[in-house]
Amino acid sequence: MFGTTLASAVLLIPILLVARLLVQYVRNPLRKVPAAHPLAHFTSLWIDSVRWRHIENATLKDAHERLGPIVCLGPKELSVNCVKGGIRDVYGGGFEKINAINGTGNMFSTGSNRPHSQRKRMLSNIYSKSHVLGSDALRISTSTILYNRFLPYLESTFAESEKGVLNIYALLSATTMDIVTSYIFGLRAGSNLIDNREQLAWFLDLYNSRRSFNFWPQEFPRFTSFVEKWLGYRFVPKWVDEANSEIERWTTRMCDEASRVLNAGDAAVEDRPVVYQQLQSSMVKEAKKNGGPVPQAQEMASEVLDHLAAGFDTSGITLDYLVHELSKRPEMQARLQQELLGLSPRITKSSAPHLPDPKAVDSLPLLHSVVWETLRLHSAIPGPQPRFTPPQGCRLGPEEAPYHIPGGVYERATEWRPDRWLDLDKLDEEKRRDMESRWFWAFGSGGQMKYIVATLYSNYTTTIVDDTGIEQIDSYTAPPKSDKLMNTMAFPFNYTLQRAYVPYQQPYSLPTPAPTAVNLTPSSCRLVVRQQPKEALVTVKGKEKFRKPLDPPPMLQLSVSSDTDPNQQFLQNPYLFVSVSLYKHDRDEPIEGPPNDTLAGTLVSSLHRLKDIDNKDGAFFIFGDISIKVQGWYRLRFSLYEIQPNFITLSDLPQYHDIDPESGILGSVHNLGHATSDKFQVVLPKDFKGLEESTYLSRAFSDQGVRLRLRKEARGMMSNKRSLGGDSDQPPIAKKRREDSVESANPLMPNFNYGISPYAQTQYLQTQVLQNSALQTPTRQEPNYGWYDPFLG
Questions:
Q1: Beta bridge partner(s), residue 398
Q2: What GO annotations for molecular function exist for this entry (predicted)?
């Protein structure tokens, strides 16, 4: 009898459980919401298992793509991925946050709305964009960090055993931490992780190693405490608590130092702890107003620890992916570097300690687009930030990551396309508001990050060495998967940093041995127009002095097959040159008449060995002084030639004294190919729009000594300058110096104006028509172009 009763009870238990689940399901209004999983309407175990396996973001993204903007995750839990009727109501409707955080509270951990709002009002003004951009303390400390720490750190990379390779993620994290703590605690009391690499590795190890142990104390805080207290089992290892304690002590030390600076009362502007001082005074004032106790140091340390963690971590992640995306796109890097050339002053070592105005940096369109596109696609905090509805206790999780990729708002939403932010003016107002505000819920707007990006790309070009594991982890905060940091400086991926163009002014002589001759043929050479002309102002005959050059100046690059010249010796060939002639735009025929009737300026260019925008050596031919004398549509035809001289000895020199230079005995000239430009228009003054802003390629070559006329501003701005009395952005002395021609060092081409380029000049004797009996060895004065680095040698 007893056995039968026990068996019946055992069978009855699952029946009762099923019945309870069915009753709950019928009574639950969420049953009408599409379920992300068949069990979601009945139990939360499914979504708990998803979170425990760290696949929540990907799972919710898939659920919203299948089921729509609102999906059910559990009997009392929804995930929301829409603005109207979703995120706007959740965040703006007074819903309280989940509060499962132990320890000393702060603004972030405050669940109730009123205390949270009170604490937020204490600090909202000093974190406003207007206050940040206008803060003298932040400006000076940022200048010190960028010029005295960040740039020297990059330079020191070249002195390491692996020259030019840098673990960029650590440096970006250190830089953001130093800037954030300098604003919170002041420069003197803040961190200096850039210079202290051991402390940087120590901090990142502590900070990131805790990330995998958030599930149990966050989702099941009471159960976690019960198991630890009564069963002696820890879901979270003890060393995680020790890591938290180490970080807390580190923060407390900065708080103590900031207090000492305040008490001393004679701190410099950059040493003033802006945030800490505001927080301290506001909390004391609030305590006196409410009759409560004076805030303890631990409360303030808890608050500022949240600030520095949120500030450095999210910014470091965003910058990490920004550099990664730019490193995959050299052309985008070049566009950004060209835009940064317009900053005044430029963020280079020679400008220290001055930085460009924060508003000028913030208003750069491409820089802004690059930062915003990274914030959109690679959200640093893609995880849900749940709220509760009173009094039912339904958990609402606005899912941040899917916000940024709805196909109806962002075209090709899964691609990194900064240009989408440059075309907003072409969109209607509703579409623009969708992109800029309604669906853009990134953590931050990138104000201070722009300074770091501008500093990096004003001085360097980045290329990827290893991006294994660059994918973001599936977590509330999402750095790259390979962020393990268990070994010193073992960070997600490395970059090669190459020096940008920084010319020196002092010349030096560069004698070098003659290069080994390489026989070039038309089939082994390829001449490419790297910079196409677009427009020209017609040059009036008799008024050549006031002519304008073709805009932008044509530039060609020569490449030679590696089979023909494996050592790229053609880069040092002094016998290569290109001539130009004017052709009809619709036929392969030259314009009738002598060249002097159609063209003005320097019509021949010798080879320039220059650093390209990717910092690699290249052979270029530059035509920076061509003007057109006839109106209409035309093309330019460029012809590549090589002089093949016959060499003589000093003992044979007398017998060649009276030889005709055109006899061929002294050498010959061979044509190696042609290249033709795109068509362009030559217009009258009334139709001329003005010279465009100089391209990045033009500026890069000008920095290396090539004689070019540069424009720092666009056509509209230059027209305003002309109305004030001048169209040049250079002072009269500099303008005069630019107009002075530099004679070619090639003795066989003595009448060609020559733009100096950094390739070695040969020192052997070449046959020439002697102007006097004194034999002079050709020499070459070369400018130092800045490729020497004290760390590289």
A1: 80
A2: heme binding; iron ion binding; monooxygenase activity; oxidoreductase activity, acting on paired donors, with incorporation or reduction of molecular oxygen
Residue 674 burial by Cβ neighbours in a 10 Å radius (0-12, 13-18, 19+) = middle
CA distance 187 to 204: 21
CATH topology of domain 518-783: Immunoglobulin-like (2.60.40)
The answer to whether 209 and 243 have CB atoms below 8 angstroms apart is yes
Distance, in Å, from the CA atom of 730 to the CA atom of 728, rounded to the nearest integer, reads 5
- State pLDDT tens for residues 579-624: 999 998 888 888 887 878 888 888 999 898 888 877 788 999 999 8
State in words which class domain 113-404+441-499 has: mainly alpha
CB 453 within 8 A of CB 371: yes
* Torsion angle of C-alpha atoms 434, 437, 438, 444, degrees rounded to 10: 140
Closest CA to 400 of 111, 64, 46: 64
Q: What is the pLDDT of residues 166-180, one digit of tens each?
A: 778 889 999 999 999
CB atoms within 10 A of CB 158: 18
Q: How many of the other CB atoms lie within 10 Å of CB of 551?
A: 21
pLDDT score at 125: 76
The identity of residue 161, as a single letter, is S
Query: Domain spans of the chain?
Result: 2-81, 113-404+441-499, 518-783
Comparing 274-288, 662-676, 722-736, the range with the smallest average pLDDT is 722-736
- The structure tokens 């702060």 sit at 106
Cβ neighbours of 633 (radius 10 Å): 11
For residue 511, give the DSSP letter: B
Q: Name the token pair of 370.
A: 């690059």
Give the residue among 46, 754, 198, 167 at the shortest CA–CA distance from 491: 167
DSSP for 579-608, written as a single string: EEEEEESSSS-BPSS-HHHHEES--EEE-E
Place of tokens 């390829």: 526
CA distance 464 to 568: 25
Residue 475: predicted pLDDT: 86
Which residue is it, tokens 């570097």? 337
Q: pLDDT by residue (tens digit) across 676-724?
A: 999 999 988 888 877 777 887 888 888 777 888 777 554 444 444 434 3
Structure confidence by residue, pLDDT tens digits, 363-420: 999 999 999 999 988 888 888 777 766 556 788 776 655 444 555 688 888 899 999 9
Rounded CA-CA distance 274/135 in Å is: 9
In this prediction, residue 321 carries a pLDDT of 92
What is the edge-to-edge ordering of all strands in the sheet holding 608-611? 525-531, 555-560, 617-622, 608-611
Q: Is the pTM of this model over 0.90?
A: no
Residue in the structure block whose two tokens are 């019946």: 8
In sequence order, which ranges of 158-237 are alpha helices (DSSP H)?
168-185, 197-209, 215-219, 221-226
**Residues 749, 641: Cα–Cα separation, whole Å:** 12
Listed residue (348, 366, 302, 311) closest to 146, CA to CA: 348
What pLDDT digit, counting tens, does each position of 513-569 carry? 344 457 788 888 889 999 999 888 888 776 666 688 888 899 999 998 888 888 888
Contact 528, 675 (CB under 8 A): yes
The CB-based long-range contact list for 463-466 (8 Å cut-off, 24+ gap) reads 463/327, 463/330, 463/495, 463/496, 463/498, 463/614, 464/324, 464/327, 464/328, 464/493, 464/494, 464/495, 464/496, 465/165, 465/493, 465/494, 465/495, 465/496, 466/493, 466/494
Taking alpha carbons only, the member of 171, 243, 177, 205 closest to residue 485 is: 205
Longest CA–CA span in the chain (Å) reads 136
CA atoms within 13 A on the CB side of 24: 15
All residues at 6 or more sequence positions from 87 whose CB lies less than 8 Å from its CB, including other chains: 80, 81, 398, 403, 441
